[in-house]
Amino acid sequence: MLYVPGSSEKMIKKSQESDSDCIIFDLEDSVAAHRKGAAREAVLHGLNAAPRPGPELAVRINPPSGDHSIASDDLDIILPSRQLQAIVMPKVESSDDVKMVLDKAEHLRQDYDAPLSLILSVESAASLLNMPHIIEEVRSWGKGHLAFISALLFASEDYCAATSIIRTKSRRELLFPRAHMATIAKAYGLAAIDMVCVDYKDASYLAEECRDGRELGFDGKQAIHPAQVAEIQRAFSPSEADVLRAARIKHAYEQSVKDHKGAVGMKEGDSMVMIDAPMLKQASDTLAKARIGKMKIPDVSTEA
């Protein structure tokens, strides 16, 4: 998910060439207060001018939990765009923040076919601990035909500022909130988006941070520079070896079911691995990601 400053018409236009999976036109932190109005118009133009098909198009609005009128103005301008697919909501502290977007969508997007994807940003301890209640309350309103929560996003710098955590390259101090947020996301069937790597010139550290995030269960990562996109996509996509192993697991399990058996042993190098339903699910998830990334799924049915 690549952030693009909403106040830069040059960067907005340049983003049309991006290979990122999602472009986030930013109306919040990257835009000075006196430039908010101009940024809204630039972002609206960027949304409407973006060639389709292409990356998912999102906008990070100003937080409804902050100045309500600024967030309201953002929504009034961008919601009518038929090319808008997602809204990143910063500093979500209560379900009222989400309700504001839903209420606006009810007035401005009534006749739109596809509902908006809402990505909720966790930026404080209270937000993290309240998130299950927020999700459940929003879902109870039954307005999913207008907009639905699709993902949780961890905003590390804001979280550190709110909790007095000192961020280090070890990431040790952020292990709990990141893992906790990813767990909440998975519990509610949502995607989990990891923090920004602020040192965008250190490619090896970015790769390390990506591996760390994937191991914690994150599905993707935020980027602040186009140079980060390729490494993030590589790190969060299955390797050819991962895909081959997943295909073998799926084939072995399905063959076992045909033979009226349950779990089955699969030879892997010098070892024998037990294949059961949880491993099938992991393999199926890997193959699904491979298909999204247009990777070739090998035919393993002829292997001995």
Task: Please give a structural write-up.
With 304 residues, this protein is an alpha/beta fold. It folds into 2 domains: 235 residues, Phosphoenolpyruvate-binding domains (TIM Barrel), CATH 3.20.20.60; 53 residues, no CATH class. It has 11 helices and 10 strands. Helix 1 links the parallel strand 1 and strand 2. This is Beta subunit of citrate lyase. Its cofactor is Mg(2+). It comes from Tilletiaria anomala (strain ATCC 24038 / CBS 436.72 / UBC 951).
Q: Which tags fit this structure?
A:
single chain, 304 residues, alpha/beta, TIM Barrel, 2 domains, 8-stranded parallel beta sheet, two-stranded antiparallel ribbon, 11 helices, 10 strands, globular, metal-binding, Pyrv_kinase-like_dom_sf
The CATH homology group name of the largest domain: Phosphoenolpyruvate-binding domains
What is the domain tally? 2
- Principal-axes geometry comes out as globular
- Write down how many β-strands occur, each being a DSSP E stretch of 2 or more residues: 10
Largest sheet: 8 strands, parallel
Question: Could you give a quick summary of the protein structure above?
Answer:
With about 300 residues, this protein is of the alpha/beta class.
List the helices and strands and how they pair.
Blueprint: E1 2-5, H1 9-14, E2 22-26, H2 36-49, E3 56-60, H3 68-78, E4 86-89, H4 95-108, E5 116-122, H5 125-140, E6 147-154, H6 156-163, H7 175-187, E7 191-194, H8 203-215, E8 220-221, H9 229-236, H10 240-258, E9 264-268, E10 271-275, H11 277-292
Parallel strand pairs: 1-2, 2-3, 3-4, 4-5, 5-6, 6-7, 7-8
Antiparallel strand pairs: 9-10
